[in-house]
What does this fold into?
Amino acid sequence: MALSKTIQTALNDQIGREFYSAYLYLSMSAYCASRNLPGFAHWMMLQAKEEAGHAMKLYGFIEDRSGRVVLQAVDKPPSDFKSPLELVTKVREHEEMVTGEINNLYALAASEHDYATQIFLEWFLTEQVEEEKNSTLLVERLRMAGENQSALLLIDREIGSRTAAS
Ligand code: FEO
It folds into this structure.
């Protein structure tokens, strides 16, 4: 069964939002590099690549369902942040927003009895649990570090060892 136009449009819009996420994290990576925090820059760069991967998963699914991929404009991301804590707080807020988007997509697929799209989106729902968990951990650890620069450098070194996940 081919994708309905409504689902196709919603998935195409999500491709744009995933690329925006990639763009946002790339911008954050550049900011972290400029603040001499190579560990954070590395973490954000991997995150950006993951997001591009999410976009391409959607892209592939639309084509698998004989749909038409139509790419949308990607907004300009912010480039300046007050502090690493403000930056990771924005990461968490952003991921919470993405969870809402995926939930909406899932509800739309359910309302159209599009079971294949629902099953496809389950991967994203699981991924969002991980995304929120990881960003919350970063926020809490930076809160604990407070103004302590040594603690910040320690966290930077630790997260610099992140390896690619999904
Ligand atoms: Fe594509 Fe970070 O969710």
